[in-house]
Amino acid sequence: MNTKRQTIWLVSMLSLMVILSAYYLFTEDLDPSSSKVANNGTTTEQTTGVQGATEASTGSKDDAIVVNEVNGSTQTQTDDNATADTEDISAADQKTLDQLESQDKATATTNNVFNDLQYKRNEQFQKESDQLWAVIANTTGASTEEAGQAVTKLDALSDKMDRINALEEELNKLYPIAVVDDQDSRYKIVVQSEKLERGQAADIIDLVTKTLEVSPSQVVVQYVP
């Protein structure tokens, strides 16, 4: 009898333990579930917050792009202003540029004058030299006397040209450009200068008479600005 009661008591205790275990088991399952729901809610809110932050970042990026565009416009405006300033400067200096252009044209004209004088003189020298050489080379048509005279004239012509070249070299030390224009028995000395004093002209005449061995009456001095 006692054994049966003990058995019933043990079975009852076991049943109670099973019930208590089940109770605690279900109770623990419910708490994590609630926590999970709460966590899910928090996670959802955090995710929403992240999305908002992303959108804010995107908005900031767009704002930066707008700023860059404004800077670009400002730079363009600055460039336009610089161009306008350059145009204003060019307009202000137009008179100076015109003067420089006029000076360049005047310089070119002056150079043409001297080049033309030298070209004509050298051309005349070459023509006379060719004529004398033709007489010297014509052994059948020209006499010995004529050939001898041609040689003498050719030597004198060469000596005169050497003296003229030496004279021009000396004058070029004093003036930018100088040309000796040979006009038969007269010599016109043309120098580049803004002005020429009487004393300077006298010095040129003195140099010419000594170099070419001619009289002052055979020398004319002219200057070209």
TrEMBL record:
InterPro entries with a match to the protein in the record: SpoIIIAH, SpoIIIAH_sf
Keyword set includes Membrane: yes
The keyword Zinc appears for this protein: no
Comp. bias regions, Low complexity: 37-55
Domain of life, source organism: Bacteria
Keyword line: Membrane, Transmembrane, Transmembrane helix
Segments crossing the lipid bilayer: 7-26
Region Disordered: start-end pairs: 34-64
Stated name of the protein: Stage III sporulation protein AH
Species of provenance: Paenibacillus cellulosilyticus
